[in-house]
Amino acid sequence: MRISKAQIEQAHERIKPFIHQTPVLTCSTINKMAGASLFFKCENFQKIGAFKIRGGMNAVLTLPQDKLANGIATHSSGNHAQAIAFAARQTGTKAYIVMPSNSPRVKVNAVKGYGAEITFCEPNQQARETALQEIVDRTGAEFIHPYNDERVITGQATCAKELLEEIPKLDAVIAPVGGGGLLSGTALSVLYFSPGTVVYAGEPEGAADAVRSMKSGKIEDAPYINTIADGLLTKLGDKTFPIIYEHVKEIFTVTDEEIIAALRLVYERMKIVVEPSCVVPLAAVLKNNKVFAGKRIGIILSGGNIDLSKLAGWFNAA
Amino acid sequence: MRISKAQIEQAHERIKPFIHQTPVLTCSTINKMAGASLFFKCENFQKIGAFKIRGGMNAVLTLPQDKLANGIATHSSGNHAQAIAFAARQTGTKAYIVMPSNSPRVKVNAVKGYGAEITFCEPNQQARETALQEIVDRTGAEFIHPYNDERVITGQATCAKELLEEIPKLDAVIAPVGGGGLLSGTALSVLYFSPGTVVYAGEPEGAADAVRSMKSGKIEDAPYINTIADGLLTKLGDKTFPIIYEHVKEIFTVTDEEIIAALRLVYERMKIVVEPSCVVPLAAVLKNNKVFAGKRIGIILSGGNIDLSKLAGWFNAA
């Protein structure tokens, strides 16, 4: 059964007290470069610094009280871990987060800062899942998947809903795609709140599972994984892929060089802090001039959680 | 004769078509750290990336047509150079900019990008002034000083005017001080538009001429110059100092370590790009808890033009 318009509207009302309505920014210099009117939905200014709080918060707030009392759990090295930790604190329950032992210190500290209990594991999928299962068995905590969960997809959909309500008559909306939670939610909100608008996605060449899955019609692995867009390494799930397959017109891939150029542009011209995954759609728009020129494009800037010490290396190498 | 309220109001109307009304942002994490309510006036989002366009634009727009036709000139390695270059392009005249030969490439390119004619000189004050005088003699261009000019001070005053109109009942406003153009303009706008509000300033320890001048009652040199806040190296002028001496309650100095800590906070928590000079007032507020706790404080974030490759070095050293 498909997520309904009413479910997205209810999710939005539910999470509103806990999230920011993030601003939509424009930049005349970048518009000139793109030959288009770009409207940036700035989820880097969101609570926890990324859109992930929308899905996490919606999932937690829909749990029954007795279930919630056991706590919530997930495995993540990134923004979803912070989202679950933050959501647990907001609702007065406990968060159990499984993180790979090589997680960046800044992300570990952020999760700790929200009061979550961290369990470190070997940095592979099997170890993550084993550690998580052990926690769920022991505590009865509710597992909230980073993207392959309808409560999460419905929450992420509220981001495009806000954008479409603030900026009418967009010709297209473009979002990044990793596991597809944000992209599938975006596609549903466009379908319900601005049906004439076309949905696109941007994906790193070094994690190109989604573009491949769109071609074959089933969930595929990426040919290889090697990109600085560390928020987009995961592959689509059985709840996100069908929505994306049906409602997304095209997925464009971009190289790390193109991601770095877009990153630099956003820092230097828009003066905002974003993470590499976040500028993948902008890089795709700049690269595919023929598709986007002359149009009104909504771009989801997904987050701003970045290890700033890496910027210099990227910019100097480029 | 003192700059009047009407002059500031007229300057604001005059420059409005050419500038952004920049947003005022807040950050709950930083508020918690400061124990105060901080309202950040974000001139890093201003045209050319800094407040300087306000003064530059006001100076250019008040020139008579025949004078304007000869062009405008200044010496600057920083944001004022961009302001004059941008203002010249907006008014269809020519900009002559004297820049020290060691100016960062990114700043030279920005000035070139606005179509200005650049003359390089040895990196010292004498060489700058000689090169500028030669240009003025040859072309009849109007020299617009970066700060010691009433047209410039009046333009910079419009920044605090916007802040005070948007956020009423501020207990204090704090701005950075270099040559004093922004600070003297801020003091005048507070005097006219929010007379109960107290004006403070932040200054780097490594360019502490203003705090010394406030003590002695006359314009002093800094004991030494050594700070990453490269926009605040200049000393007060005979037009800015009297206003500051009369209307600014206190100037607080901060170390480069404190500047870097504040810089990191703004990047990581507010997710915006600012330059080191810009966070000196925030560093001063965090350092002087007894003065600011429990109050509503307006903070002028002056600009966001920064060589991003330097961030890593600062953050890793701290």
TrEMBL record, chains A, B:
Alphabetized InterPro entries for the sequence: TrpB-like_PALP, TrpB-like_PALP_sf
Cofactor(s) it depends on: pyridoxal 5'-phosphate
Pfam families per record: PALP
Gene3D superfamilies: 3.40.50.1100
Domain (Tryptophan synthase beta chain-like PALP): residue spans on this chain: 16-303
CDD domains xref list: Thr-dehyd (cd01562)
Gene Ontology MF, one: pyridoxal phosphate binding
SUPFAM superfamilies, per database record: Tryptophan synthase beta subunit-like PLP-dependent enzymes
Segments crossing the lipid bilayer: none
Biological source species: Lacibacter cauensis
Protein name in UniProt: Threonine dehydratase
Keywords: Lyase, Pyridoxal phosphate
Recorded family membership: Belongs to the serine/threonine dehydratase family.
Keyword check for Lyase: yes
Gene Ontology biological-process annotations: D-serine biosynthetic process
Taxonomic placement: Bacteria, Pseudomonadati, Bacteroidota, Chitinophagia, Chitinophagales
